[in-house]
Amino acid sequence: FQRRGVNTLRLLLSFLLLAAWEAGSGQLHYSVPEESKHGTFVGRIAQDLGLELAELVPRLFRVASKEHGDLLGVNLQNGILFVNSRIDREELCGRSAECNIHLEVIVDRPLQVFHVEVEVKDINDNPPRFSREQRLLILESRMPDSRFPVEGASDLDVGENAELKYQVNPKGYFDLDVKRNEEETNVLELILKKPLDREEAQEHRLVLIATDGGKPELTGTVQLLINVLDANDNAPEFDKSVYNVRLLENTPRETLVIKLNASDADEGINKEIFYFFSNLVLDEVKSKFIINSNSGEIKVKGELDYEYRNLYEINIDAVDRSAFPLTGHCKVIVKLLDVNDNTPEISITSLFLPIKEDAPMGTVIALISVSDRDSGANGQVTCFLKPHIPFKLVSSFKSYYSLVLDSSLDRENISDYKLVVTAQDGGLPALWATATVSVEVADVNDNAPVFAQPEYTVFVKENNPPGSHIFTVCARDADAQENALVSYSLVERRVGERALSSYVSVHAESGKVFALQPLDREELELLQFQVSARDSGVPALGSNVTLQVFVLDENDNAPLLLGPPTGGIVSELLSRGIVSELLSRSVGAGHVVAKVRAVDADSGYNAWLSYELESAVNGVRSPFRVGLYTGEISTTRALDEADAPRQRLLVLVKDHGEPALTATATVLVSLVESGQAPKVSSRTSVSISGSEKAVVDVNVYLIIAICAVSSLLVLTLLLYTALRCSAVAAEGACGPGKPEPVCSSAVGSWFYSQERGQRVCSGEGPPKTDLMAFSPSLPQGPTSTDNVSFKNLIHIDFFP
């Protein structure tokens, strides 16, 4: 009958489950009876939380509990919360009036945390139980209405299921009186209804029955064995039947709890009293307290702990020394007072790490719960965080906190945080506990690769070997791992009619720039292009740098002889370097015979030409000379009959390159008498004179430009040195520093950093102290070489 009633109660409660939002706290509340079968319906948790069934699995719906995670489960197909394993309320919560299971429901994308409270309802599944059989010794001389204490039963259930009623059978000699004391516990006393006669009956056997208030009712029984004794007229009596004592839980051993004093109206030996713990006192109580049988002093024997047990009921017997002793009874109730002797406890149940540096404010990082075994103010715990930037603690429910992001993160500034969570109770003095949370910041690709400067200037000698290394670009990315992995590429464009990639290439990993073919300054003086650096993040970020590659001239072009555009055989001879002239023997010294003209496709020193005659043959001094820079062939003296009628002059045209390149011109001079000279010579002379003047002008401009640029360079160096010394003097010292040279490499390329005072080398090899400067093109005179651009290269060597 009892089992069928329990099952009926479980079935009824399972269909009457309560699911509602708890007012003010925002938590979902359900109830379920204890001992429910596996699979018992608790509530539609997904529906009550406003979640769709289709999103439970993708959002990683899960239920976590600090201590009872396996008691309840959720069916992800229908979103129903059900009983997963046996729930025993007495095992979970003991005699506590309330018994709740706290659940944390967590879903991701975005992260949400819900608090669910499931109340475990008590069912009447525990009958009243007595600790042991009880025996009483009662003198036959005891008067009716004498009272004798009896130990009651205990019921593990709570509420009405633990409300006990008592009765005793049979009721011939004794009756039962039940009272409630200050601690709301039952005090049972056996009342003698009529005198006892030991000669008639030496013992009486009674049955004490305890019935709880559950539906259906459960009962427990115990046998009372009463031995009837002969002796004394008066039993010892205490001042009170119940003594109440309050003790601090940290009371040391040997501390006096109470001194009992009982009196006996008899005389002599029957008046002497001894004190003992009653047979009703359990061994656990005897391990905590001790009584002096002579003085009646009760002292602390063992360690007391309020959190383990806060109330002790001690039954004391006062026995006289008669041959037939009489016994007086009292009860000492010791109530412990809480002391702040338990530090708070911190539990970190969930960590969502690492956290991305672009995580929005309010992102939950960890779930933290705190507890304290003390009570009252000693058990009230507050929680705070150090350092609090950029995080904060948010109280989510009672003693639960969420560690959330309070401001923006930057992994490049701080990549990880060591947070200290401190929990402090409200006791005096306060106790606290700490827990360390390590928060790692995950990298996000928010930094593009950066070059040291936006533009680089590179000098490369022409005729470089194919595939030669001319420069290395380098970009730095402040991100980490793949987001910091930089690759390089050319920004493709057209250079004339050809693609940029036919001239140069860049290594994707090292950033080395290579010239794919020999460069020709006469074809390409400046190659300007961009190199792109991109990281490997998603999406990838990048930046560009500009390279200006100046092609430096090398002496790879020999001087080229020029002649007037006359055409015919004369022009052909001139193109071969052969000039034929008629000269009267009557001319005097300094007469201009002819002018050799030549140009050089190179620039600077490599295009600066000089002229000279080959040495005289057979030691005969030639009557002619040539201007060193003008190329004018003139007489050195008056001609005479001894001079050969045909003079062959070999003019050597040489540039100033290293090594110098040359060209030769042969001038055939025929000496004739004055009357045989051609009439047109005057016109030719005029034409030649005009051409000579143009070439002379060009050389004059060349010399002036060289001097001007040299002066400007010296002035610039002096000004730079003065400014440099003044800057150093402002820092505290100025002295003769070493020059900052432009670096050259073994493959013939130069690079000059645009940053002040920075020395940058491209390639390998010892640096040279060469300073290269270019002057603008000279203005051209009205000569036959107007289509040639003259550029002067000033090369000044500084030697230490």
TrEMBL record:
<feature type="domain" description="Cadherin">
    <location>
        <begin position="239"/>
        <end position="346"/>
    </location>
</feature>
<feature type="domain" description="Cadherin">
    <location>
        <begin position="590"/>
        <end position="680"/>
    </location>
</feature>
<dbReference type="GO" id="GO:0005509">
    <property type="term" value="F:calcium ion binding"/>
</dbReference>
<dbReference type="InterPro" id="IPR020894">
    <property type="entry name" value="Cadherin_CS"/>
</dbReference>
<dbReference type="InterPro" id="IPR015919">
    <property type="entry name" value="Cadherin-like_sf"/>
</dbReference>
<dbReference type="InterPro" id="IPR050174">
    <property type="entry name" value="Protocadherin/Cadherin-CA"/>
</dbReference>
<feature type="domain" description="Cadherin">
    <location>
        <begin position="452"/>
        <end position="561"/>
    </location>
</feature>
<keyword id="KW-0472">Membrane</keyword>
<dbReference type="GO" id="GO:0007156">
    <property type="term" value="P:homophilic cell adhesion via plasma membrane adhesion molecules"/>
</dbReference>
<feature type="domain" description="Cadherin">
    <location>
        <begin position="347"/>
        <end position="451"/>
    </location>
</feature>
<keyword id="KW-0106">Calcium</keyword>
<keyword id="KW-1133">Transmembrane helix</keyword>
<dbReference type="Pfam" id="PF08266">
    <property type="entry name" value="Cadherin_2"/>
</dbReference>
<dbReference type="InterPro" id="IPR002126">
    <property type="entry name" value="Cadherin-like_dom"/>
</dbReference>
<keyword id="KW-0130">Cell adhesion</keyword>
<dbReference type="Pfam" id="PF00028">
    <property type="entry name" value="Cadherin"/>
</dbReference>
<dbReference type="InterPro" id="IPR013164">
    <property type="entry name" value="Cadherin_N"/>
</dbReference>
<feature type="domain" description="Cadherin">
    <location>
        <begin position="153"/>
        <end position="238"/>
    </location>
</feature>
<feature type="domain" description="Cadherin">
    <location>
        <begin position="25"/>
        <end position="130"/>
    </location>
</feature>
<feature type="transmembrane region" description="Helical">
    <location>
        <begin position="700"/>
        <end position="720"/>
    </location>
</feature>
<dbReference type="GO" id="GO:0005886">
    <property type="term" value="C:plasma membrane"/>
</dbReference>
<feature type="signal peptide">
    <location>
        <begin position="1"/>
        <end position="26"/>
    </location>
</feature>
<keyword id="KW-0677">Repeat</keyword>
<keyword id="KW-0325">Glycoprotein</keyword>
<keyword id="KW-1003">Cell membrane</keyword>
<keyword id="KW-0812">Transmembrane</keyword>
<protein>
    <submittedName>
        <fullName>Protocadherin alpha-5</fullName>
    </submittedName>
</protein>
<keyword id="KW-0732">Signal</keyword>
